[in-house]
Amino acid sequence: MKEGAFKLQWPEWCEVFHGDLNLRVIDLDNADFSKLRRINGSINLINSQTRTMPYMPKLKVIQSDGIRPGVVILNNKELRDMRGFVNWDKEVKVIGHPDFPIFISGNTELDTINLPKAFHKPLSPTLCEKRLAPGYNIQFAESLSLATTLITLILSATIFLYPMSLGSGIVYFVPGYHKETVN
């Protein structure tokens, strides 16, 4: 959706939403999600210019079909903060894919360290990114990690093989086929 394109108005009376809630097509500047309690589907924010997630104070349950994640926040280059999205002090149940109920990735400005504990679960893509601060470059980190691994491997192989390359007067390749020559 192009910036400035027509966006849908959110019905402020809505308490239960059925289907996938794609926030990118909603006018988030004027949307009032204060009555929304449940989403029977997933909530998605993908490829948007949004800087903060909308506030949904009464949202208690996000239940997708179990095949897809319940929350997908993907490739939002301007997204910086999502702590106010829902009230994480109260119980918020996200039901989705068993391994990835919440999928957050590709949001280069998002501060993932300060995300609620609900987002920091084993196998979570958030943990895979290991981002420490906004502006973290995952490609740079992966190349740095690969370079470090290769250098460590080369150094350890060199340290292990170098003494063997110095040799000694007696070298046995196959027993019986090599004999020591004495001069």
From TrEMBL:
The chain crosses the membrane at residues 140-162. Residues 14-110 form the Receptor L-domain domain. Keywords: Membrane, Transmembrane, Transmembrane helix. Pfam families: Recep_L_domain. SUPFAM superfamilies: L domain-like. The keyword Signal does not apply. The keyword Membrane applies. This is Receptor L-domain domain-containing protein. It comes from Caenorhabditis brenneri (Nematode worm). The lineage of its organism: Eukaryota, Metazoa, Ecdysozoa, Nematoda, Chromadorea.
